[in-house]
Predict the structure of Synaptotagmin IXa.
Amino acid sequence: MNLSNPDFNVAQFQRQDSLTGMGLGLGRLKPELYKQRSLEGDEGSRRGGGCGRLHFILKFDCDLEQLIVKIHKAEDLPAKDFSGTSDPYVKIYLLPDRMTKHQTKVHRKTLNPVFDEVFLFPVAYSELPTRKLHFSVYDFDRFSRHDIIGQVVVDNFLDLADFPRETKLCRDIQYDNVDLGDLMFSLCYLPTAGRLTITMIKARNLKAMDITGASDPYVKVSLMCDGRRLKKRKTSTKRNTLNPIYNEAIVFDVPPENIEQISLLIAVMDYDRVGHNEVIGVCRVGNDADNLGRNHWSEMLTYPRKPVAHWHPLVEATYELSPPPP
């Protein structure tokens, strides 16, 4: 595939945030260095149990009104690396607030990491019944996305813990498919014009990312080749909703000889005016996608010039998806 083909560019839009063209002279790409692993990962090791256990301690400081969480250790984690080990770390939220996130250090090459790290969450005691403590255990990968090992959710503080005294807890780490919502979009390819059109229609039941119980979602579409992002576009942002309606078209110029090597990585993002934009969930379509993503792409190619629409469930993005430059 000749990436320096001058026809292989994003269709130009009349807007201020036009994209910078892909730099040339990249040399020969080595797909094995950039190829992404499946977004859904190794399902065999994720379904149900078999993900190890997490030990942690809870305490509540009534004077300072803060929940004290000590992540002690994890045991019997599944091996995610070829060496038979993992490089685990833990992220922790006090839901529904996702603005405050804590993270442990990464422990290299171990399935039984001892963290012994303490994190503080300011919260009134009266609010505890409405809060959930969410632990996500990840395997760090220096060159690719960080693979999620599993999660622990604690939502009945007052029944479990003997506040204000310390309470030691141990929970099985589970991998459950978290419901992040669904995205509907259509694909249409015009071979004669070499034009790929993605129409973002709407989303439903998105995960709430703000403490208000809503989100400010927009959709970012990345044109991918062998795991490398070539171009990206985004929709407008819809405020304070979990069921946004877009009806916005995004167009890429893709010659027929290149269409088989291309895929689309689609991320639903939560806009944050002050902090960083967060990924709500992602899906992928293309010949190398899984199940629905591959079938949708195949249907588009089978029926050229005809928009083909489907709902796609969003999955967790466990690799870094930086927001587009301003």
Q: What stands out?
A: The mean pLDDT is 80. The two ends are 30 Å apart (CA to CA).
